[in-house]
Automatic annotation (TrEMBL):
This is HIT family hydrolase. One of its GO terms (molecular function) is hydrolase activity. SUPFAM superfamilies: HIT-like. It holds the Pfam family DcpS_C. The active site is at residue 99. The lineage of its organism: Bacteria, Pseudomonadati, Nitrospinota/Tectimicrobiota group, Candidatus Tectimicrobiota, Candidatus Entotheonellia. Keywords: Hydrolase. It comes from Candidatus Entotheonella gemina. A motif (Histidine triad motif) lies at residues 97-101. The keyword Hydrolase applies.
Amino acid sequence: MACIFCQIIERTIPADVVHEDDDLIVFKDINPKGAIHVLLVPKTHIATVNDLEIHHIPVMGHMFEVVQQLAATWDIVEQGYRLTVNVGRGGGQEVDHIHMHMVSGWMRRP
Ligand code: 5GP
Ligand code: ZN
């Protein structure tokens, strides 16, 4: 399996996992851009937003439920945080397994 995020999901390479359930894994980014920087990753290998299909809607919606839970846990609801999904090389996507970045403690504007 060449996909690095699939390998993290399968625990063949290590990651600092902060949440896991049947459909989703969340782990700390290896190169954090903020005090908090995690990646929310569906366990199903979907390459990019361009590859989303109707049956992926529940897991993508669930991603936002987990974002809310983590924001409450880390007490950053009021402070705020950034969610980013890069799409394709031109959009800054380096890992071809769909994921959402959740970053806090980084005030730089896009
Ligand atoms: P992208 O540019 O594809 O939106 O984001 C990929 C992210 O994955 C980058 O922020 C990068 O630091 C992170 N990343 C790449 N390889 C690994 C890894 O092996 N472990 C972890 N925890 N993060 C990784
Ligand atoms: Zn994958």
